[in-house]
């Protein structure tokens, strides 16, 4: 089953194309450095304020409750790509699997290239936030974050860590890689929250 979530902009009272964005048919690559090598037999680590800190194997992770969604993708540098077909695990399914503690407020995403990004738990706890391993029905290409990345269609795409290695549930906010370097921590495309 495929779920179309491209009406998401209505929640933000905005047009499908956020202000200051232009639509592209291509899928540009934006990385802070080289594409890191990630084992085909990857693992995913959950730590911090959860009942069950644990490491999932790729097979365990993919078996949880995968879903396919059609989503839009907005890069802070000004391009948007409509109708991306992503297959992965919705964030709330992972949260259920590990049991999030009451004092958890934020989530730090960690990646194999040293990248980090943080979102409030409430902003992660939505089905459109997904850990993605396939794009258009094919394994996610390495340059786009394969074997596993995060997508955040309600935020600029820097909130979605490519090559994600795990998540850390935090009781206090922390700034991620780009957020420390002047990008907006809230990153709402319909408000043009690009810089802090
Ligand atoms: N691990 C990691 N994730 C990352 C980045 C990165 O450099 N490293 N770049 C971010 C930025 S700025 C954007 S716009 C998107 C780009 O995703 P794409 O290369 O698939 O278009 O990934 C985000 N996630
Ligand atoms: Mo970006």
TrEMBL record:
Disordered, as annotated region = 1-35
The UniProt entry, under Pfam families, shows:
Oxidored_molyb
Name this protein carries in UniProt: Sulfite oxidase-like oxidoreductase
Question: Entry's SUPFAM superfamilies?
Answer: Oxidoreductase molybdopterin-binding domain
Residues forming coiled coils: none
User: Origin, by domain of life?
Assistant: Archaea
List where Basic and acidic residues composition bias occurs.
Answer: 7-16
Where does the record place the Oxidoreductase molybdopterin-binding domain? 33-178
């Amino acid at each position: 089953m495929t779920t179309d979530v491209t009406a998401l902009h209505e929640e933000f009272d905005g047009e499908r194309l956020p202000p200051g964005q232009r639509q592209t048919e291509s899928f540009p690559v934006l990385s802070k450095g080289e594409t890191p090598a990630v084992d085909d037999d990857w693992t995913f680590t959950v730590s911090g304020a959860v009942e069950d800190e644990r490491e999932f194997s790729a097979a365990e992770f993919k078996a949880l409750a995968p879903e396919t969604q059609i989503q839009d993708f907005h890069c802070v540098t000004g391009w948007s790509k409509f109708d991306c077909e992503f297959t992965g695990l919705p964030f709330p399914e992972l949260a259920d699997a590990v049991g999030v503690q009451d004092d958890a407020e934020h989530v730090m995403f960690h990646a194999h290239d040293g990248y980090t990004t943080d979102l409030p738990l409430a902003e992660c706890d939505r089905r459109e936030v997904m850990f993605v391993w396939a794009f258009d029905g094919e394994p996610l290409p390495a340059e786009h974050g394969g074997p596993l990345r995060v997508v955040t269609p309600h935020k600029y795409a820097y909130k979605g860590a490519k090559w994600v290695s795990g998540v850390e549930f935090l009781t206090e906010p922390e700034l991620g890689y780009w957020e420390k370097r002047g990008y907006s921590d809230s990153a709402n495309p319909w408000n043009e929250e690009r810089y802090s």
